[in-house]
Amino acid sequence: MAFPKLEKSDDTPYTNQYLDECAELNEALEDGASLAVEGSKCSFVEHTGNLWEAKEEVKVHVVGSDFVMGVGVARDYAELAGRPDVEPNEAGVGEVATQDSDAIGGTIWHLVTKEKSHYKIYKKSEPFVINVKKSLKKLAEELKKEELEEVAMSFLCSSSDKMNRVWILKQLYDELKDVNIKVHFYVGAVRCSLQFQGTLLQLPHLFKAQVQGLIQF
């Protein structure tokens, strides 16, 4: 299924910046550049497997404020552990609703990145980009506050939400580069490459990773 292409506009400065940054990332990666920052304390790890079977205590995924949880990782959670005890719109964009789950094992962080679960970047790009940036910043603040050394998460906002996965990773990396934390990304049954504007990119390419049964950068 083809989705509408985002276009720049005088009325959408955040969308324009998003598109420019995606283009810059694409060019850098095609040139073989690394996105790693020398001296960074954080590390990213990609695993083959189900997020909800991860061994890490805290597991993060994204939801809409309405908590419909009808697709993707959120739907998988609802099917495995039942719906969280959160009323629709109780948690606003940028907030994290936490929940302990015996069914999954650990604490679930439901990161609210949009008002409605059906919102996609190509429908209303400007508020979508603003809200995602706000939410990722808030997530980083919460991770710092809790002083977590490890956390598990899905590839946030880049599957059903249709945002650029590399851009999302770069936003989170920039927020966490001074934090001593290992972020574990779980990608389902098959470890995936990144589809970045028509170019397939393995995750090690992004941060000069080493492959040792899993992918680290």
Automatic annotation (TrEMBL):
Gene3D superfamilies tied to this protein: Leucine Aminopeptidase, subunit E, domain 1
InterPro entries registered for this protein in UniProt: Macro_dom-like
Highest taxon in the source lineage: Eukaryota
SUPFAM superfamilies from the UniProt entry: Macro domain-like
Protein name: Uncharacterized protein
Source organism (scientific name): Cloeon dipterum
Lineage of source species: Eukaryota, Metazoa, Ecdysozoa, Arthropoda, Hexapoda
